[in-house]
Amino acid sequence: MSIDEQTGVRLQDEEKVLLALRETSWEGTLAKIVTLGLYVLWWNVKWYVVTDRRLVTKKGIFSKTEVALPLHFVQDVSVHCSPYNTGSVKISTAGGPEGVSRIKSLKAADARQLADTIMSQARRINVDVVSTQRGTGDVSEALSRLASLRDTGVLTEAEFAEQKARLLQSGS
């Protein structure tokens, strides 16, 4: 186990940080002004970190909270952007209404980047899980499933090629 130097998030063995964002928007700037800068203490310790395995939310100064959502549970990610250049990200998992997380107070561009990173990594992980579960199964059937995922837009052409190469390598 290691700790990311920039965010202070605890990383699992061999885990890599793909994206790290702080809560930022005009709302945060307003809070800094209204609190005469004291809000900066809280702002500096609230991070949203996407690794190759999880989404980690870390916040707190004295009482620290670190919540991790394994990306293989993610089913959908949506972005809402306001006319004021702020955005929020809604993450849905299989838990029904309780399986919805919302990340607020981001710049619109940061919200889009966070959503794109979460969804692309969740897709990659889910395809890896399907390939692993198939194990020594029929390679042509697995290739057909990958092609179907590519054709429906779940996988990009590059992701399809990467998964196909892995599948063919493991099948030989």
Mean pLDDT: 77
Share of β-strand residues: 25-35%
CATH fold field value of the largest domain: PH-domain like
Question: Segments where pLDDT lies below 50 for 5+ residues?
Answer: none
Largest sheet: 4 strands, antiparallel
Estimated helix fraction:
40-55%
Rg measurement, Å: 19 Å
CATH class of the largest domain: Mainly Beta
CATH architectural name of the largest domain? Roll
Shape: globular
Structural class per helix/strand content? alpha+beta
What is the strand arrangement across the widest sheet? 3-4-5-6
Count of helical regions: 5
Output the helix-strand order: EEEHHEEEEEEHHH
CATH superfamily of the largest domain: Pleckstrin-homology domain (PH domain)/Phosphotyrosine-binding domain (PTB)
Count of domain modules: 2
Secondary structure tally: strands: 9
How far do the termini sit from each other? Answer: 34 Å
Give a written overview of the molecule.
The protein folds into two domains: 2-134, PH-domain like (Roll); 135-172, no CATH class. It has helices spanning 26-34, 39-43, 108-134, 139-151, 157-171; strands at residues 2-3, 10-11, 17-22, 47-51, 54-59, 65-70, 76-81, 86-92, 100-107. The protein has 172 residues and is of the alpha+beta class. Helix content is 40%, strand content 28%. α4 (139-151) packs antiparallel against α5 (157-171). It has five helices and nine strands; from the N terminus they run βββααββββββααα.
